[in-house]
């Protein structure tokens, strides 16, 4: 496994897209189940007050750095990470690799019909892609038995779940043993982006590390979640200072 840095107590692995895809390929060859989480600053702050979510992040098989804030924090803490690994970019990459390798993908979550539309788009882009299933559903406990049965019957190699955080990650963790899928990951709004229902920030905005601002402008309901960002930055600075003081004392 790759090395990891702890950002405010949350593990983040030093991986790029190539390493992430390589691990998923190894898991598929090995058999399941394995869970991937896409850690961003909001995840880190949410985990501080949510013991169950913190445990899921701590027990996940791979915690990829999703968010420039995570890259900044790791660099400040003296453990720079290779690159940002986002769910929205990882899903098409998985589809491309799956079309080459013959993996079967299952798309779960988002609004009614969105997972199926995202699957159609990816099949059109990557001929040969095998979609084991696409279904909406919800993370409600009463729906779990039927969803688990549906996915087990489909026998996918990779399960992408778009219920939003932390619901998607908690759901995977709660049912990973029953599902038995080699690779399972929460992908947030990836299906909406792929299906064309929601625009991602233009590349120049992403490169300027202002995607958070684009989301705030285009999705103003996110403002409460964005309040976590300055608290995250402040606490990371404190962690970095404490780490340096500890090194000096040693």
Outline the secondary-structure elements.
Blueprint: E1 4-7, E2 10-13, H1 17-30, E3 35-39, H2 41-48, H3 51-59, E4 62-65, H4 68-76, H5 87-101, E5 104-109, H6 114-125, E6 130-135, H7 144-154, E7 158-162, H8 167-179, E8 183-186, H9 190-195, H10 203-207, H11 211-218, H12 223-226, H13 228-249
Parallel strand pairs: 3-4, 3-8, 5-6, 5-7, 7-8
Antiparallel strand pairs: 1-2
Helix pairs in contact: 2-3, 2-13
Write structural notes for this entry.
- The protein has 250 residues and is an alpha/beta fold.
- Helix content is 54%, strand content 15%.
- The protein has 13 helices and eight strands.
- The strands form two sheets. Strands 4-3-8-7-5-6 form a six-stranded parallel beta sheet. The chain has a two-stranded antiparallel sheet with strand order 1-2.
- Helix 2 crosses helix 3 and helix 2 crosses helix 13.
- The model has no long low-confidence stretch (mean pLDDT 90).
**Strands, total number:** 8
Tally of contiguous helical segments: 13
| Strand order, sheet with most strands | 4-3-8-7-5-6
Low-confidence stretches: none
Report strand %. Answer: 15-25%
Order of helices and strands: EEHEHHEHHEHEHEHEHHHHH
């Amino acid at each position: 496994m790759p090395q990891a840095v702890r950002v405010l107590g949350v593990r983040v692995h030093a991986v790029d897209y190539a390493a992430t895809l390589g691990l998923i390929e190894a898991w598929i060859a090995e058999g399941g189940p394995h869970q991937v989480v896409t850690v961003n600053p909001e995840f880190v702050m949410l985990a501080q007050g949510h013991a169950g979510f913190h445990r899921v992040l701590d027990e996940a098989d791979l915690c990829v750095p999703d968010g420039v804030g995570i890259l900044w924090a790791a660099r400040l803490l003296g453990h720079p990470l290779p690159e940002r690994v986002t769910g929205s970019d990882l899903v098409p990459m998985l589809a491309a690799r799956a079309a080459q390798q013959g993996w079967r993908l299952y798309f779960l979550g988002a609004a009614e019909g969105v997972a199926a539309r995202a699957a159609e788009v990816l099949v059109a882009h990557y001929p040969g892609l095998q979609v084991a299933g696409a279904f909406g559903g919800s993370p409600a406990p009463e729906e779990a038995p039927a969803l688990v049965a549906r996915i087990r019957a489909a026998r996918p190699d990779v399960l992408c779940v778009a219920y939003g955080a932390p619901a998607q990650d908690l759901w995977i963790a709660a049912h990973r043993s029953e599902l038995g899928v080699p690779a399972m990951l929460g992908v947030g709004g990836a299906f909406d982006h792929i299906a064309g229902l929601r625009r991602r920030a233009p590349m120049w905005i992403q490169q300027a590390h202002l995607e958070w601002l684009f989301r705030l402008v285009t999705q103003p309901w996110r403002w409460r979640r964005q309040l976590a960002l300055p608290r995250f930055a402040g606490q990371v600075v404190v962690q970095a200072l404490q780490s340096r003081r500890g090194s000096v004392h040693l």
